[in-house]
Amino acid sequence: MTYLAPRQGLFAIILLVSFCLQTLLLVISTDQQLSKSRALKGEQMVAQLIDEARLSLENKDRVSLSVIANRYTSEQDVTRILIKDNKDDILVPVGNAPMQQGDTIRQIATNGDAVIGSVALTLKDVSKGEIIAMQWPFVIGTMLLHLLLWLIYGYLARPTKEQISALSRNIQDLYREQYNQGDQRGYSRDLERRTTGSPADGSPSDSQMAGLAAKSETAGNASQARPFNVHNEVNEYLRTQQNQSSSDETGSHVATPADNVEEDSVSVTRSDLQSGHHTSKLSATRAVDSVRVQIVFHDEFNMLERLAPAQRLPYLALCTQLLNQAVTELLKQPLLLGVSATNEARFEDDGASVVLKADNSHAKVALAGVMLAKLYLMLNKIIHDKHIELSRFALPAKAGVSDEAQSEPMTHLLESIGKKEQLLILLPTAGLKQISNHVQVHSIMRPTTVYERECAIFDGGNDSMIQRLADVRNAVLMIEDEDESAT
């Protein structure tokens, strides 16, 4: 494979600037030379004209003066000749000076000591285009020379195979070093956790601990022999745990069915296994009695931290008021009968959360959480656009809905993959069934963790739900307008 020379485009820009500067200097120097030569030529022509027209000028013979002046205006550089008498009255104006201006040479005509008149001769300005046309061999030659230099650079400065191989080795060494550090830290934590366990709790045997210790000591050398592969390591770990689970049914370590090992290992990363997440958090059969709605600001540049308290606190108070009014108005809907809020939301720098619970088995608490999150995003969109229109501070928001068991993973998901005006949903099967007839969701593309695989993104709702949300939004905004008018 042929590689281009490094920064070949930058070198082309440098050559283009060099060519332009050379052309400019050529035009300036040629212009100065032509101006000097034409000035000398103009002075000679004026002196010669005075000598020829001295007798006619004394007699004020306009015809003779016109004939003499016309011979000089036939010169290419002369644009106008003006002959005046001793009283400064114009005798003969010849030429087209109003169309072509230039340098004017004036000289007084004398006969002995007596002044008999004056002659003014105007020379045409030197055109830059004429200069370039005159010097076209130099301009084209310079352009070809610069183009040749660019081609030579592109050929000679290409990286050789040795340089490419050295660069590839440096990149691989850096890659191995980074993953070697992470691999050693992971095995150290795993070894420490296993050392504190007991055989009755399903911890590995002494031989397995010795093997794990040996693996942690040789992790650096092994990573240099082959690239670190997360999926292979996870598969090996899961197979070990599965074998132990078949021999000891009372063990409490991680176990997956044999037919789902490969599928789960694609999504589970080493960090998920080492962080001690339990399978109960991912149980699809868990009941949904309460949900937590988390709303955070999409603040990419940490503008809220830099904002003065005199501006930040009123803005947070406005967001808090909007959220509480949205909760109050939304729970009045007959569709959400039996759902109540257990806390009063309050916005801080890291956002706000609302916990909704079901008072009976028929209450659709999961649907209430999704509707509340979407309602606040609609309200925040209006407030954000209005503030920006008035040149005031405002931030877009993003929201997440989950049950209490998965509230912490939802917080991490909002930080890692949450986008502006996006609604993430992390609910068990029972919660997804509640919202299935009202909203549409889609999965995350290329998930890297279990929670990203289980998480869904709000993709829209049916007409009746969107209409309900629009009505509640208008009701909240009317309350807000009434409060502002009252104050």
Q: Your description of this structure?
A:
This protein has a seven-stranded mixed sheet with strand order 6-7-5-8-9-11-10, with helices on both faces. It is 56% helix and 15% strand. It has 487 residues and is of the alpha+beta class.
Can you tag this structure with a few keywords?
4-stranded antiparallel sheet, 7-stranded mixed sheet, alpha+beta, elongated, about 475 residues, 11 strands, single chain, 17 helices, about 15% strand
Number of helical regions: 17
The mean pLDDT is 78
Count of DSSP strands: 11
Q: What value does the Rg take, in angstroms?
A: 44 Å
Q: List unreliable stretches of 5+ residues.
A: 195-231, 248-280
- Oligomeric form: single chain
From the helix content, strand content and strand pairing, which structural class follows? Answer: alpha+beta
Helical residues, percent: 55-70%
Brief characterization of the structure:
The chain has 487 residues and is α+β, with helices and mostly antiparallel strands.
Topology summary:
Layout: H1 8-59, H2 62-73, E1 78-85, E2 90-95, E3 102-111, E4 114-124, H3 128-134, H4 136-156, H5 161-195, H6 206-217, H7 219-225, H8 230-247, H9 261-267, H10 270-274, E5 290-297, H11 303-306, H12 309-330, E6 339-341, E7 352-358, H13 365-389, E8 397-403, H14 407-416, E9 423-426, H15 429-436, E10 439-443, H16 450-454, E11 456-461, H17 463-486
Parallel strand pairs: 8-9
Antiparallel strand pairs: 1-2, 1-4, 3-4, 5-7, 5-8, 6-7, 9-11, 10-11
Helix pairs in contact: 1-2, 1-4, 5-6, 5-7, 8-9, 12-13, 12-17, 13-15, 13-17
